[in-house]
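If your schedule permits, I should be very grateful for your opinion on a structural question. Thank you for your consideration; the sequence and its tokens are set out here:

===
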Amino acid sequence: MYFTEEHELFRKSFQEFLQKEVVPHIEKWEETGTIERFIWKKFGDMGYFGLNYPEQYGGLDLDLFYTTIFLEELQKINSGGFAAAMWAHAYLAMTHLLKEGDDRVKEKYLAPSIAGDKIGCLCITEPFGGSDVAGMRSTAVKKGDVYILNGSKTFITNGIYSDYLIVAAKTAPEKGGKGMSIFVVDRDTPGISATKLNKLGWRASDTAEIAFDNVEIPAENLMGEENLGFNYIMQHFALERLIMGINAHARAEFALDYAINYMGERVAFGKTIDQFQALRHSVAEMASEVEMCKEFNYSIVKRMIDGVYVVKEASMSKLLSTKIADEVIYNCLQFLGGYGYIEDYPMARMLRDSRLGPIGGGTSEILREIIAKMVIDKKEYKKAR
């Protein structure tokens, strides 16, 4: 058993919170592409941004299975964009604040992030780099007590409306991937501009291309050690990929549940369509695949709690879970026939939102190569010191 009675009580209370506070606004946010500020504060007031963060900064210091529940239930209100905005803040931006930030940074940025008073985004991907993090072109050159940041980032979730940015840039470009550092940068710093991107899915979240033109960053906003940024990024990718694997199994499960309910009501040729063998066997196979992903993902969460560096397993989780989720949702849309193609039904949005899974956080093609290095070449990845 992975979940205790306390976990399940949390799941029920979070479901009720989402139905009351979030679901009534989802259609508007999907339409406008703007998640209103009040909901961040409500999440913060309820402690949802602090589930696995220290009590010292306002967190609850709970185990990662609470985070797992948080992620799963966010997938089941049918807005991949809203879910992404929440988890990108809580587990991309804030993870770097916790792991690399000093006490000053944690007090100034982490505590208000947990409280829902500040929103963060993580800026790594670049227009010319994509999954090639080491090929980053942005630079941060030290001059006296500041760094001068120049460059651009793209596909940044919360990139428009966030209050601060966690930015990776080359501080020693001649060292390649070994010359990268991580900074926290205030949104209102002169020289930062952001352009909203128009996406196929994740319509509720704001995704941006961001430009930095001679942005002055106080030297004290360097997080961790200079030139160790690549190690920090790689280390946290394991959590990001596991998150995306969990998201995938949860949305696949949601799609399957919806389709099964629909099939039990839809009558064709004198019987409900859940009685046709071809459809029944398709459901049986998909349910088996989703259950395998879910059990595998839960086992990785447990290993992560136990302190194991799960870079291989998390990469496998994201690779397979996102692939299976796409296939399941595609087939579930087919079960709905013409209604699956209508925006008033949930499956069309689910199909669009799910398609980001094999792309974001490292494409499936990159993950296959990472896994191949570990399985075939026996390469070992270690945590940054």
User: Anything to note?
Assistant: The chain has ten helices and ten strands. The CA atoms of residues 231 and 385 lie 9 Å apart. The two ends are 33 Å apart (CA to CA).
